[in-house]
């Protein structure tokens, strides 16, 4: 069993939702996972208590959450000694045409923080129209028209989700398998199966 920290920054909640799904996949593999919002990090949290770290952030107005950037900068030396992953949530990742822009955001973040995570995931976010004021709703509709060629169906509240949950789960499984390989650990379920085969 490996101890994972999943730390994320979120705007309207989609990155939190994605971080939770990642944590669930890793937990289901038999590892110990702690989920932490970068905007509300407990004072007693020590990154040294974790064997692997996953950091997630979303893009708002062309930038990641400053709390996530500060966390990575403050802990970069420790992060470099551990297996790590970074995931980004953006409207740019909702459509193939936006992938180059999404990659630019990641490159800028890694350059600013001088961090080199082992794995990177890019996921489409969501348009939370139900949480926007009138002007932001109009602005986001215009941005979405330019950024996304095919708009998914809105839910009952009028919100639109672009996240591919299969991609999120595959990313979590890949990161978990990478960490298991790097640390020479395996989840308890795998060990039990090996003993009974």
TrEMBL record:
InterPro entries xrefs: Flavodoxin/NO_synth, Flavodoxin_CS, Flavodoxin_dom, Flavoprotein-like_sf, Protoporphyrinogen_IX_DH
Biological process according to GO: heme biosynthetic process
Flavodoxin-like domain location: 4-170
Domain of life per record: Archaea
Database matches in PROSITE patterns: FLAVODOXIN, FLAVODOXIN_LIKE
Pfam families: Flavodoxin_5
GO molecular function terms attached to this record: electron transfer activity; FMN binding; menaquinone-dependent protoporphyrinogen oxidase activity
Residues spanning the signal sequence: none
PANTHER family xref list: PROTOPORPHYRINOGEN IX DEHYDROGENASE [MENAQUINONE] (PTHR38030), PROTOPORPHYRINOGEN IX DEHYDROGENASE [QUINONE] (PTHR38030:SF2)
Protein name: Protoporphyrinogen oxidase
Native source species: Natronosalvus hydrolyticus
């Amino acid at each position: 069993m490996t101890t994972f920290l999943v730390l994320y920054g979120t705007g309207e909640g989609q990155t939190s939702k994605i971080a939770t799904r990642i944590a669930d996949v890793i937990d289901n593999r038999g590892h110990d996972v702690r989920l932490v919002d970068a905007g509300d990090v407990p004072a007693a949290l020590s990154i040294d208590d974790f064997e692997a770290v996953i950091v997630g952030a979303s893009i708002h107005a062309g930038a990641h959450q400053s709390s996530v950037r500060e966390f990575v900068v403050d802990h970069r030396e420790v992060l470099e000694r551990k297996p790590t992953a970074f995931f980004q949530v953006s409207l740019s990742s909702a459509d193939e045409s936006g992938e180059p822009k999404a990659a630019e955001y990641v490159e800028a973040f890694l350059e600013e923080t001088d961090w080199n995570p082992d794995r990177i995931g890019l996921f489409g976010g969501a348009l939370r129209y139900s949480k926007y004021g009138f002007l932001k709703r109009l602005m986001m509709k215009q941005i979405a028209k330019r950024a996304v060629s095919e708009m998914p169906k809105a839910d009952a509240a009028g919100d639109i989700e672009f996240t591919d949950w299969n991609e999120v789960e595959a990313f979590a499984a890949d990161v978990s398998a990478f960490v298991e390989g790097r640390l020479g650990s395996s989840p308890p379920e795998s060990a039990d199966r090996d003993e009974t085969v």
